[in-house]
Amino acid sequence: MVNMTDSELFYNQFESEENYLLAKEQWREEANNSPYQPTENEVFSRKRISNYLIDDLKIPRIDNPYRYVQTVKREREKNIIIQTQDGLGVTNPLLLGEKHIHFPIKDTNLDLELLQEYLSSKPIASRLAIFRDLQINYSLQDYPELFDIVIKAMINIECIDEAKRLTEHI
């Protein structure tokens, strides 16, 4: 439900709950004054989905989304093994004897051979980190050869659902 009602919390940083609430009020006013209002069908569909989530799936109501997201973020940070550029990090543990070696990602001149070697030999946690970093730096659909390498590497470590989601967007 937080994603439906307070999705801004996932892609903005706020110094405090008060700043978030002020921004939310400003966005509400802008939306109310916008000439682009949702259609009756969009309002109906959103309400129907919301009711389904609450009534049928029993999604818990979050009374304070700001604090909830901050708490979840702090808990996740405690479990991060490898930092990623998107701030989410990777929580999969490195196995005994494994060591993460960062793969440099530059906006240009990505060495695809070195990347393929990295994706076939490094720990799974390292591979997951590079998947995230690649997606932050590249629109994979614009780089077919890179896209193929990533999809094959995902399938190789059995990230089938993730690979499927990526291919569906192309």
Provide an overview of this structure:
- The chain is mostly helical and 170 residues long.
- It has nine helices and no strands.
- 11% of the residues are buried.
What is shown here, in short?
The chain has 170 residues and is mostly helical. The protein has helices spanning 2-5, 8-11, 17-33, 40-56, 65-79, 112-121, 124-137, 144-156, 160-168.
How many β-strands, per DSSP? 0
- Secondary structure class reads mainly alpha
Largest sheet: none
Shape: globular
Oligomer: single chain
Q: What proportion of the residues form beta strands (DSSP E)? A: under 5%
Structure characteristics:
170 residues; mainly alpha; 0% strand; globular
Question: How is the secondary structure organized here?
Answer:
Blueprint: H1 2-5, H2 8-11, H3 17-33, H4 40-56, H5 65-79, H6 112-121, H7 124-137, H8 144-156, H9 160-168
